[in-house]
UniProtKB/TrEMBL annotation:
SUPFAM superfamilies per UniProt: CinA-like
Source taxon at top rank: Bacteria
Gene3D superfamilies per record: CinA-like
Protein name: Damage-inducible protein CinA
UniProt lineage: Bacteria, Bacillati, Actinomycetota, Actinomycetes, Micrococcales
Chain ranges of the CinA C-terminal domain: 11-163
One Pfam family of this chain: CinA
Amino acid sequence: MSGTAADDGATAAEVVRVASRARVTVAVAESLTGGAVTDALVAVPGASACLRGGVVAYATDVKREVLGVDADLLRRRGAVHPDVAVAMAAGVRALLGADYGVATTGVAGPDPQDGQPPGIVHVAVCGPHRTVVEPGGSPDGTVGRQAVRAAARDAALALLLEELRVAAPVRTDQDDADRDDGAPVPL
């Protein structure tokens, strides 16, 4: 994945550009990143064209009560699991009425959580056609809390950009003009 702290917001800017051109919307659910993914997107001029909003679901009960993550899944797997990342992405997508939901969950450290060591991160993107989940943290949890969080933010943005490039059709004004009713072309 291409997103790194050194890219100075380039990945977030590209997400906004691609999503805006494709006329699709994005919603963000964050745990360990605590709003950093949403912040990176909001920092880009024009983000309002595609960003619906974000939910910081730091506590497990917020994942369940706000994002609709299944209580049994949380009980069986814990809050740091690929299936939880997928459920968070799907939940925020539905909650905020977005075309794409992106989510982060993991262990920033310094202590383990739910039997998972620091540095373990899962990022997921749920779109209209498919859902993907990948590891997205620092393989070395000893790098420190902020480095793990930054790596998770960058991985989420990179995965979202990858999915937008693969799956989001670029809509044009001509596409809209070709429709009898003038409504935007559906995904």
